[in-house]
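Q: I'm a student working through a structural biology exercise. My instructor gave each of us a protein and asked us to get a predicted structure, then write a short paragraph describing it. Mine is SRPBCC family protein. I'm not confident about reading structure output yet, so if you can add a plain explanation after the tokens, that would really help. Here is the sequence I was given:
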Amino acid sequence: MSKFASAAATSHTLSLAAMEEASRSGQRTTDVGHLLMALAVNEQVAGQVLRGLGVTLDAVREAVAAQHAEQLGSLGINAEVPAGGKIVFHETGGYEWDKPSLEIFERAGAGDKRGDAAAVLRELIAEPSGMIAAVLRRLGTTPEAVVAGLDEAARYPSHAPLRTVEPGRLSGVSAAFAPAPVERVWELLADASRMPEWEPGIGSVESGPSVVRAGDTWVARTRTVRPDGKAMRVKPELMTQQVEVVALDEGHHLEWRFTYPDVAQANARRIRVELEPAAGGTQLRLALAWDRNADRPRRPLLALLLRPLTRFSIWMQLSHLGGGISRVFR
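A: Happy to help. First, here is the predicted structure for SRPBCC family protein. I'll explain a few features afterward.
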């Protein structure tokens, strides 16, 4: 992945997670504390280093709140820090970064820095206000320990997800992190009735098994209303989806195949999620692929022209998928 693509992808995922955290307390301006929370649930090496030092999402939330309260108290202000509720980012709007956070992203991508999560974390812990250093000390670690962890990780080659699952096929892979044990994540994914909680394209499930097995099938209805209440335009023939479990290894991976029975030439969509225990939760490897319908006309020139847009679309689908699974546990 190029430096630009890496920085853009990192900025997107961190911004989404940080603004989701801000939305829990009714804030619209996202600051360095929210950025640390986002890094604590990031799937990249930066998140792994933080969680390995005990800097988990719940711990960061508590430490940031305590630090804000202490700062207000030092000014003679006895005010309660807003308690966090559920994430309402997708139901609301008007979010933006504060200036110090924007400058962190700019520095993380300047010069020969890659702009990935590790670069952002290095800039964050060096931010001049001392806020993040104080939060880390509350969590039993220091900026120096975080830098040492990043330096150690940098000595080893990192495994970057492949762009495609199979050459010549519309497919892609990605990674995500869920702040919950593998057992809880598996319970979510293996319950067909809970699919609307994490799969952004599914609005409801009809007669889905609570514990799925390979070969199980059920009917799902396409989502027609966004989280903010706005209606989505969906063609009538795309309202019904059939879901089939095509592969399953309990506690390790699940794979589903989605088809549109009312569209004769529709391609089938496959989603695969692999789970691996990790510090502070579960590392997820996500794969998405489209199975081409043999009766669908081939348009190779058009496919070539649309390849960049297709790759971006698949990346966005994977990003929403990983974010949806992680959000259930936040």
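A: Here are two points you could use in your paragraph. The chain has a mean pLDDT of 90. The radius of gyration is 21 Å. It's a good idea to check both against the output above yourself.
Q: Great, thank you!
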